[in-house]
Write a structure and sequence with these properties.
Elements lengths: L25 H37 L1
Length: 63
């Protein structure tokens, strides 16, 4: 690793919806699928957490 490694442009780690996929390799596409699937799991967990909090609040104020 040289001192100049930081000067090279870095590939984006994320995925931009609607971006052109033609320039990506099959491996890069697979990596994006994994990234997006991981994000979906994270989003679903947050929905579940918020739903549980809302249900707890509704039960508290009802009873």
């Amino acid at each position: 690793m040289s001192l100049f490694d930081d000067d090279r442009p870095k590939k984006p780690i994320g995925h931009e919806l609607g971006s052109d996929l033609q320039l990506l390799s099959a491996d890069e596409l697979q990596a994006r699928i994994v990234l997006l699937e991981t994000e979906i799991v994270r989003l679903r967990a947050e929905i579940a957490r918020k739903s549980a909090g809302r249900l707890a609040a509704e039960n508290f104020f009802r009873g």
